[in-house]
Amino acid sequence: MRVLARALAAALALGAAAQTTARAADVKFGALFPFSGQLALLGEESARGVEIAVDEINAAGGVQGRFAGVSSSFAFLTPFLGYEPNAVTLTLARNDLDFAAVAHTRNQRAAAGAVQAGAVGSTLYDAVATLSAPQARAAFAGMAGDAHAGLASTAFATAGLSREAVLDRLR
């Protein structure tokens, strides 16, 4: 399984010796998020989430033991936790779900296949890999051009109605 180069890596460091002191150890939490480009909003919101999590963990006395699990809304990435003596690492790895699996139309599947052909490291591929299934479907619909065909049909139908209204008025 390929690990995304931009995978989020989170490290929680706790000293075992610090647990024996009267004062609870602070939790140190590091994460990598995008703060520029098209994914900047995701990075800002994720960073706020980390800040809230750190405050809650520190208020509860730090991390003791193991997390019950990890989950995400990413359709194409699977989160894994790794444990070391003084750290917990969160890794997002590309799962086996094809981009086209979330598409509904033939055009969306074609767009999804084109994006997936770009592979890890491609800007478009990396952006789609971090989406949920509904978000990816909407992105593929936008890339497929389905809306353009619908817009053209609507414009012709509306023009026909306007023409008929004018002709009816003249009769």
Describe the structure.
With 171 residues, the chain is α+β, with helices and mostly antiparallel strands. The protein is built from five helices and four strands; from the N terminus they run E-E-H-E-E-H-H-H-H. Strand 3 (77-84) and strand 4 form a beta hairpin. Helix 2 crosses helix 4. The longest helix is centred in the C-terminal third of the chain and has 25 residues, at 146-170. The N and C termini lie far apart (71 Å).
Q: Major sheet: size, sense and barrel closure?
A: 2 strands, antiparallel
Mass-distribution shape: elongated
Instruction: Please compute the radius of gyration using only Cα atoms.
Output: 24 Å
Strand order of the largest sheet: 1-2
Beta-strand portion reads: 5-15%
- List how many beta strands DSSP finds: 4
Structural class assignment: alpha+beta
Give the uncertain stretches in residue-range form: 1-27
User: Which series of helices and strands comes N to C?
Assistant: EEHEEHHHH
Helix content: 40-55%
**First-last Cα distance:** 71 Å
The average pLDDT is 73
State the helix count: 5
List the helices and strands and how they pair.
Elements: E1 11-13, E2 28-30, H1 40-59, E3 77-84, E4 87-94, H2 106-117, H3 123-129, H4 133-144, H5 146-170
Antiparallel strand pairs: 1-2, 3-4
